[in-house]
TrEMBL record:
It holds the Pfam family Aminotran_1_2. The keyword Cell cycle does not apply. This is Aminotransferase class I/II-fold pyridoxal phosphate-dependent enzyme. It comes from Metabacillus lacus. Gene3D superfamilies: Type I PLP-dependent aspartate aminotransferase-like (Major domain) (3.40.640.10). CDD domains: AAT_like (cd00609). It comes from the Bacteria.
Length: 284
């Protein structure tokens, strides 16, 4: 994608997906961090920057879990139209929206052909397939076809054909409907357990969709302490600092993934977090 886009100035959400930051950095383009709020990326800050390509996760901002309202999506598209810019829309887990009305993807609202749409089967199906896809605007598709066709897909054709068959027979739609119900239930269990076990110590962010939530932890400890304590009690949770620039590093937020866990494991996990973070005490 970077090859097809050519010389550009990139920006991305801050906090934002560190794998994207590091991949762009590895290609020689360190993206400018643009702050976000509960309604998504700051358009004002984006306009003040030199960027002409921006990476965003509007369906479920990663890592914070915010959902961009339609107004913000229109502003982003206007920005792209006015600046001959491109928006990279990473729609990684939009299949699982539990609350609020559905909002169209940027790609669906785009009239300037300025959105590069990224999708993955890692969340809705399984990450071990290593299957994803990209929908390029026409202009970029032409550039790809003229100059960069020697970059081939690394996903085995057999897997692609199996998925195509799965979809055309209607299994994909049924799978998503089934999983949406299942994940919603898991999330309900997670949130009610967080409330009953950890109460005021935590507050939950980003529960409208997706397969993870973020919790703010109201304790006078470090992220490292929280991660280490959880690990000692056999629970794997993730810190947000890796997705955050220096100035925001003090935010004490932890990402909890629940997609791959059963309801009993979720309950046990939260009970263990209570032991780890509250009952075992600070400083030991
Ligand atoms: C923000 C975001 N985008 C995309 C992906 C999917 O990555 P991949 O398709 O490489 O598994 C993930 C997976 O964790 C993610 O968190």
């Amino acid at each position: 994608m970077v090859k097809v886009l050519g010389e550009k100035v990139y920006a991305m959400e801050e906090p934002g997906f560190f794998r994207v930051r590091e991949t762009l950095r590895g290609s020689g383009y360190l993206p400018l961090p643009i702050e976000i709020a509960a309604d998504g990326i700051s358009i004002e800050k984006l306009m003040q920057s030199e960027a002409n390509v921006v990476y965003v996760t509007p369906s479920h901002q990663f890592p914070m879990g915010y959902v961009y309202p339609v107004g913000k999506r229109m502003q982003l598209l206007e920005w792209a139209g006015r600046n001959n810019g491109f928006i990279i829309e990473d729609d990684y887990d939009s299949e699982f929206r539990y609350r609020g009305r559905p909002i169209p993807a940027l790609k669906g609202l785009d009239t300037h052909d300025s959105v590069i749409y990224l999708g993955t089967f890692s969340k809705a199906f399984t990450p071990s397939l290593r299957m994803g896809f990209m929908v390029l605007p026409k202009g970029l598709l032409n550039i790809y076809q003229e100059k960069w066709r020697h970059y081939k897909s690394t996903v085995p054709l057999m897997s692609q054909m199996a998925m195509s068959d799965f979809m055309s027979k209607g299994h994909w739609e049924r799978h998503l409907n089934r999983m949406r119900v299942r994940y919603r239930k898991k999330q309900e269990v997670l949130i009610s357990c967080l409330q009953s076990e950890l109460g005021e110590t935590v507050s939950v962010i980003g529960e409208q969709s997706g397969l993870h939530v973020v919790i703010s932890v109201n304790l006078p400890v470090s992220e490292n302490w929280l991660l280490e304590k959880a690990k000692q009690h056999g629970v794997l949770v993730f810190g947000l600092s890796v997705h955050i620039s220096e100035k925001l590093k003090h935010l004490l937020k932890i990402l909890l993934g629940y997609g791959g866990l059963g309801e009993r494991e979720i309950v046990q996990g939260i009970q263990l977090l209570k032991k780890a973070w509250i009952e075992s005490g600070k400083g030991d």
